[in-house]
Specification:
By secondary structure, this protein is mainly alpha-helical. It contains ten helices and no strands.
Length: 233
């Protein structure tokens, strides 16, 4: 009898946790839509509740205030990328070129090709000057972990001779800047002058890897192709 009660109690606990997780997901989805549509300053928890089809008080059962809700939206957005952003000490340094290519490629899945991520990027550009706390959250939750992992992958490739020791390690922004430019391009010109993202990504990776390899390992320059500035007007 006691064992049966324990089993029943465990099932109820799992069910409660499942309901809580589903409710939080529902709130986060509605909160993102509200932040993306109206900006952080104008977003109202009343409207988040309306989008989620719940009472406003239900939000406070899961999130302390609008700021903590926004932080959770950021975390939820980058959660699928966490495994690839985690340090990978078990991978031999000789394979770090592949690791770095994989890390950079993921940007095009998680950020450049992700409408939600692009909307968040636009939100941060619009709101961060007026609300420095948002920029701090974005730095802590997204930029800092990603930059640290990219820097680690780069530094591990130096002793093996895969990458040359230069100032690039101090500025991991240089590794990702083409992807950031692609986001800005799509936000400004996307449907009218679209980029061939697959070709653009490969050009980005080739550009970065050629720049990181020691001079002796760099292939001879290829014939330049015609410039591709997006689609036709």
């Amino acid at each position: 009898m006691q064992k049966a009660h324990k089993i029943a109690g465990s099932k109820q606990l799992v069910q409660r946790q499942s309901r809580k997780a589903k409710r939080e997901e529902q709130i986060l989805r509605a909160a993102f839509e509200e932040f993306a549509a109206n900006g952080y300053a104008a977003a109202r928890l009343d409207d988040v509740a309306r989008r989620a089809k719940i009472a406003k008080g239900t939000i406070f059962l899961h999130f302390r205030d609008k700021k903590s809700l926004f932080r959770a939206v950021l975390r939820n957005l980058v959660h699928p990328a966490r495994p690839i952003l985690e340090p990978q000490p078990q991978i031999p340094s000789v394979e770090n070129e592949h690791v770095l290519r994989d890390l950079l490629s993921r940007q095009y899945i998680e950020v450049v090709g992700n409408k939600k991520a692009r909307a968040l990027f636009r939100l941060m550009i619009a709101e961060s000057e007026k609300f420095p706390e948002l920029a701090r959250i974005y730095w802590q939750e997204i930029i800092q972990p990603s930059a640290a992992t990219l820097g680690q992958a780069l530094q591990k490739g130096i002793p093996s001779g895969k990458f040359c020791a230069g100032d690039t390690g101090r500025f991991p922004q240089l590794l990702v800047s083409p992807a950031i430019f692609a986001v800005v391009w799509m936000l400004l010109l996307g449907n009218r002058h679209g980029l061939d993202l697959d070709a653009y990504k490969e050009a980005h990776l080739d550009f970065v890897m050629r720049g990181l390899r020691p001079a002796a390992q760099t292939n001879a320059p290829q014939e330049p192709s015609s410039l591709q500035m997006g689609g036709q007007p």
